[in-house]
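Weekend entry, working from home. Most of the wet-lab plans are on hold until the incubator is repaired, so I used the time to fold the two sequences that have been sitting in the queue since the last round of cloning. Logging both here for the record. First:
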Amino acid sequence: MSAFLIAEVKITNDAWVPDYATHVHKLVAKQGGKYLSRSGNITSLEGKGPDYSLSAVIQFPNKAALQAFVNDPDYQPYAKARQAGSVSQLYMIDDTDVAGTIPYLTKG
């Protein structure tokens, strides 16, 4: 079952960005992951607009692969640099479809 990392990043100091962008995609690929989107083109369609600069969606083959990426010792220096130069929220979701499991949410 695929797992997705969703990142919301508000950059406060962009010194970390070039090195991160150059190296982290290789670490994502090492765990079987691939970027589906990484963009600063964020448009609010409903509610208050986001308070972040960048958003990324990365697909991994499963939750274990996503966790392996996040916990990879090779990733830690990049994660620390991102954390020092941004306010970040990272989420993991899977591709479960809850339709049919909630009475008011039917499949189809």
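Second, folded right after the first finished:
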Amino acid sequence: MKITKYIAIACAILSLASCDDWLGNKPKGYTIPETYADYEKLISSQYLINVLDPYLVYFTDDPMMVEKGETTVEWFEYIGKKDHERNIFSFQPGQVYTPGNSDAIWEDAYANIFSYNAIINNVLSATGGNDADKRRLQAEALVGRAFEYLCLINVYGKQYDASTAATDYGVPLVLSEEVGGGKYKRNTVAEVYEQIKEDLETASASLADKKAFPFYPTKNACYSVLSRMYLYMGNYSEALRYANMILSDPQNIQLIEYKNYKKIDGTQWRNIVTDDDNETQFPDGQYGFPSPEQIYTRYISNHTFNSVAESDDLRQAFAKNTDTEAGEVDLREYLFFRSDCMNRGAGMEYFKGYTVYTAWIQINAGTSIPEMLLTAAECEARVGSTSKAIGYLNTLRASRIKNHIAYDAADYTDRQKALQLVLDERRCEFAMIGYMRYVDLRRLNKEPQFAKTIVHKVGNETWELPANDPRYIMPVPQNVLEYNPDIPQYER
């Protein structure tokens, strides 16, 4: 094979003009993989560890913003946000990004996909390495590609509906890294999900049982992505089956005990440390502090720390199932938010009456043990045992709630009551992780009992996003449409 025909970019973006036209990417340079070691370096690229973008949080009911001058800090003023952030927060129709600005989720995902394609299609014929290692590396790339498409389809496609998926617009499936200069079609939602499923099922046979760092997919990582995929499809029995493939081994259920941590003043980044000292930082998987919870690590490269305030809706969600009179404290809110004031090292800053998101840790948009517990709990509440659902909730909450009082399963034999409890917990666990809440809103809006209109206010302005509104779907970027004008768009 003549490798020079292919793009395989160690810094994870493509190179030639035809693909540059379609994806809207500018090349950052590239190398040509020839050996197994080259492909190992490619899959270890720092670019491939990142995924998504925090802007999806602005679709949700988690954040709030204020008018200029309402507080003495400018962090969460609406006027100070980027154009696309304001457009999303105010639910503007049409294109979200203004001319000359690119959509980070779309561009980064397809850049990553081209790198994964180079590995998938070429590593087996590379020099060096043994066959088992090559198949494992190919399998890791298959999981990476599947994960990118699972993110893309739930941002740019309609929410999965078995009755319409075969005709609903999805995203273009690009399975080759070969530069051809041709046009690309917009595949259906069903076709994209089928490719995700095929990639994951193919990968599962060749993945390792364990890896030193959870950025490299293992069998459990593959099962966890399958579980998420089936949950998003509404196939609760299969989502439960794959979650249980992980949770059935008690050694896998390792959770961070939030009660062992505190927040400190005088610093911004990594302001959450153990109670015993100010040096042992919260284990988010970076800088020598591995997280026991992460199954498949994919970090959101930027985040909304200090730039959004907690909405009244989110505050009520934290309070809803926390018995403060009995001494319960939801440590997720306590550790990751600051109320009224904070000191980041340059003196006290005041924002009286507001609570600001100040986690300043690496946010994993990949899969985790808490997610699998919540998926299993939701699926049990829907199609299995409500008692098991409550058991999974108690397991998670014991690590999150100070002075935790366990739920009595006998009080939640009604499926709807148990399910609501699970969804409440999911809201709190994934607070301010934009993608997770965004997709939950989209999928739950299809059920009338959970349908919700999102209301955002700034000063005298009020904007609403009704359930199932087409504005939930991000548009194909304008710079992509310029080179592919025949790609169909949703009206939004």
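Plan for Monday: verify the second prediction. Residues 131-156 form the longest helix (26 residues).
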